[in-house]
Every structure is written in structure tokens, then in C-alpha cells.
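>> received
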Amino acid sequence: RRQAVPVFAQQEKIPLGIYVHVPFCRSKCQYCDFYSLGGSREKGLIENYLEAVCLHIKEAGALAPGYQVDTVYFGGGTPSFLGADGLVQILNAVRRRFSVSGNGEITFEANPDSVTEKLLKRLRAEGFNRISLGVQSDDDGLLKKLGRPHSYRQAVQAVELARKVGFHNLSLDLMYGLPGQSLTAWEETLEHVLELAPEHMSCYGLKVEEGTPLCGRVQRGEVLPTDDEQADMYLWGVERLEAAGYHQYEISNFAKPGYEGRHNLIYWDCGDYLGLGPAAHSCMGGKRFYYPADTAAFLQDNAAPVMDGGCGAEDYLILQLRLRKGLSLPQYKAL
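>> returned
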């Protein structure tokens, strides 16, 4: 039988981030190696997942008293694939079993094609206050090459709808180093996206992961920008975003003042976080553990957490050096 988490009894309220992994999406992107079931339409699968993850939340809450949840992050996959009812069901389960801060950051990831006014209005009314939108590019041809299921126009419309229903904390994801992309094309993409005025931007260099369709295409001769060309794109992006008022606080992340991603900062600062769902990772009480990337086992309630060491000085060093602020030498020496 699945054990929700190791027992972590605390004497005082310790900040906690909760990550909910939604392993479903409309289709797998060409570059993606995250755990997800692209295009899955198995009857009852979503309902069974919702039941299992809410049970997981109930069990975890009983075994981890003394925490104050400051952030809840729905990632995937494509969390909006669950629809508003599913996302709200999970968030309400978290609220029932954990103490959630009144000013907590509650984020969900979405693809532009899955965003509707009805969905956004419901989620905003239920307390979701941050969206991470996967835009990736303003070039529909490049989006198609990546296997993205949306157009740039849909991304613009998604931003407009988010503003209309009252979301004031919007993060947009972009990628550079794409097949056939030039520095000029990347510059144009960033300029266009800046016109949307998000509060936060994440800019990631394309990485070719083993076993993905993109990896096969590259092995067959498809040409990507060189490392030097990708470095030029990155450095230009850093300078342009800083000039536009976006402070680079992490290698790939930029924010207007006060809009840094609070949930991801928990990871980089070696804080406590609990991952819920198949393939979700956690670090609580200095111990790391994760659940197997196996939705069937998760649904059958027999996926035990796998202990994965602790969060010590080496982890702290690696993660802190991702941040613009650098590491705290006294804290490092204390580990």
C-alpha cells in the first residue's frame, strides 16, 4: 500500500510548498521528457486520478502536521487538461487537510489552446492567483516543429482572457535555440512577447533529451543552433529583459519586482516541499523522496515513496548557485 509521506511531526508552523503533478496532456511535444500520458482518453482515468490524488492529500496531511502551506503549484503534463472542476477539487482537498496561508501563491500551468474564459473565471474565483502559460515562440512554424498544439494568436488570446477575468500574476515560458531559429528571430520573439507585459518570464534553451522524437530528428540530421549561437541568444535575452524591467533572479527566470516565482524559490533555497502524484518529488525534514513515474501504480494505491537521500551542503551549493543572489556562506557552513 502507498505510504503518503514519511512522518514529519513539527512543533511549529514550517513553510511548505505543495506540488501536484498532473500526468495528462493533449499530446506530447517533440522535445518533452517529463512524465505525462499524451493523448490519453482511457475511460474513467481522470476520475480515478482525482480520487487517488485527493486520498494522497488526506494521508499526507495526517502524517505531516505543523506545516503552513505557502504555495501550491499544479504542473504536468497540462493541468488545465483536468478542467476547472478537477483543479478545484484538488485545491479544496489541500485546504481541508493542510493549513494554507491566506496570501499563498496558487499556480497552474496551461497551454494556450486549453484556456477559456469560463475556465479562468472559475479558477480565479476559487483562489488560483497565478498562471504559467507555455507560449514558447511567436512563430507558428516553429511551434509546429516542436509539436506544440497551439498558435501564437491563441497565446495572445489566452493572455487577454487572463487579464479580463482578473489574473494579475502571469508567467510566460519561452524557448530559444529552436530548429532553424536565428538570433534575429529570437530577438523578434522576445520583443513581441514583451508587448504582452507579463509579470514573469522564463526563458529556456532547447535541450535535446534522449528518447524524445526531437532527439531522433537530430540524430537523423536536423540542424539546431550551435552552442555559441544559443549562448548569444541567452545573453541578448538577459540584457533585453533587464532593460525592460525584468530582474534576473535565477538562470532562466526573470520577474518584475515582487513577482519572483515563490514556489520554485522553495526548491532553489532548499525549503520543504511535498510532491503529490506519480513522478512527483519531495523534500521534507531534510529528506528527499519521490513516487515512481507510474500512473497505474499510483491509481492502485501501491506506489511506495522511494527515499532519495537528504538535502545537504552539496545540494544547497548547486541550487543556490542557480540564483542571482548567490549562496549564504554561514548557512552553507552550517549544513
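>> The chain has a mean pLDDT of 92.
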